[in-house]
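Before our next group meeting I need something from you. Please put the record directly below this note.
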Amino acid sequence: MKVIAINGSPRKHGNTAEMLKSALEGAKENGAKTKIYNLYDMEFTGCVSCFACKKKGKDCKGLCVIKDDLKEVLEEILKCDALLIGSPIYFSDVTGEVRSFLERLLFPILSYKKGEREILKGNIPSAFLYTMNVPLEQYDSLGYKAIAERNQKIIGGLLKAESQILVSCNTYQFKDYDKYDASRFSVEEKEKVRKEQFPQDLKAAFELGKQLTAK
């Protein structure tokens, strides 16, 4: 069994990356092989609307035809047994890199043929892991929950398997808050969440990885 993780954060060792790595550790406990990709290390674009994946007589097998750093990643994903996607929430949505990644992954799988929704032969269970600065009580009121559920529905439908959501709220953004103009936030509250809640979030990610790879 192979599990692929996509880190959509610009930080390789930040909150999102920690959540993904914990989930992969859970998958490893079940004997899964794992790999993590950092989108910000790659040169790629979103969908360029070439429609090559929809041309008659050209069977792309659900794979985007653009040849850039994302091509091999997408090839691996279509052969993997589970997919993890991690993103911080920036301006009420996933990062631009995650959005571009999703376009490239999902549009070639989406079928334009009548009576056919997707062309994926197998199925790929998935999970989104979100990190965000806002506290849990604002996750729904600010519309973040609706965004997460939208992504869950789309990817779950096209990959033909259950997609799950794991959220880590009120995350610690800076190692030293004194260096930044961030007085609207309570450093004491942030530190408390970091010490008490974030370890629980990491544990939940670990259990998610185990669950996705349970036989």
